[in-house]
Amino acid sequence: MMRPFSKLLVLLGGGLVLAQPALEQAEALLRAGQYGQAVLLYEDLLARDYGRLEAHLGLGVALFRLGRLEEARFAFDQMVRVFPERYEGHFNLGQVLLRLGRPGEAAEALARAVALRPTEEAHLALASALSQAGRPREAAEALRRGLTPERSPAYRLALAQALYASGARAEAVPVLYGLLNQDPGVAEAWDLLARILAEEGLRERALRELDRGLQAVAGPARARLLLRKALLSEAPEPLLREAYALDPSLWEAAYLLGQRRLGAGDARGALPHLLAAYRAAPEPQVALGLAAAYLRLGDAASAYRYAAEAGPPGTFLQAQAAYALGRRAEALALLEGASGAEAQALRGAILLELGRAEEAVAVLGPLHRAGGGPEVGANLAAGLLALRRFGEAELVLREVLAAAPRLAAAWYNLGLALLGLAREAEAERALRQAAALGSQEAQALLRR
What we know:
By secondary structure, the chain is mainly α.
């Protein structure tokens, strides 16, 4: 994805004729970083002569650097109205609109800047605005129109990124090779080239190109290529470790190391990597990984915190953590509208614990019929028992015990179902089996 372009043009001193000492003083204040005082002088100059180009430009720049973006927008908007033929006003207006989160309007201003003076920075800024406005094809086309032999590697990389974002992967490849022939040290170009080749099914070629890139790229920038190689490799862990050691700010490497540990069932080993990734970049997927690790380690409070930070993808883990903290009503509310089998199984279990057996059965019945596992079946049977539907409970429990014959709770509930059906001898055998498997409830019932 293209990086946002942010640069204001400033014309000070020798670029324009200075008519009076007040303007020189305002520009000196601007150069010295005394922006508030510069604003007052520029405003005074405009009050006396609204046709001063230098004052319009200086006022807008000073306001921008003070962070007073809406005022800066107005200043540059006024500049383009008074001087519609000046490139600087349209370019700066576009930059301010980008910072204000109005990329569509920014693109209009920057398109006028390109028409007035087709500089590299104007084309890059226009493409950035179009990309942020969700118009990647137009961004790529804007850069393609502005491509000339003297364009920099940064320009060519932006064009390749825009083509990729617009779905024109194959068109990005010659641009990338041209860039790398011009400057083989651009790590981002090797990375994007390998990504495209892999997505085209050319994994081995992608790996070879990454090896070429690793020979050409020096310093921490190599870490990005090692990360890409790890994603394509059958043995990624050494590459991820090397990438993270080379560039500790590369949070994706630490995150993937943590995810591999988590996938292997080593939540404690995953935690340092995930925490390192989170410190570098508290991204939602990192928070989600931390929530899963803490939940497996029994730290429900930490799991709840990170699951909440993960946003909607973390809702189920947040519900699990709330349940583990004894907050069943909150967990149930979090599960409202959830469609996954695990989420529905937990929802059914909570409804059962809250004494809402009929609702629990309505949730757990379809899950059991879809092959939801022994625990789902055992909870469904418990709900049926609470509703005194003993015959249905027996059928469910027989199915559960066929799949999990050592599930003590199922034997115990089967004993209760058989007692409800007045089949005392069978009930006693089921309860003895439950007691032998460690069911304290069955042991207590048999002692009566």
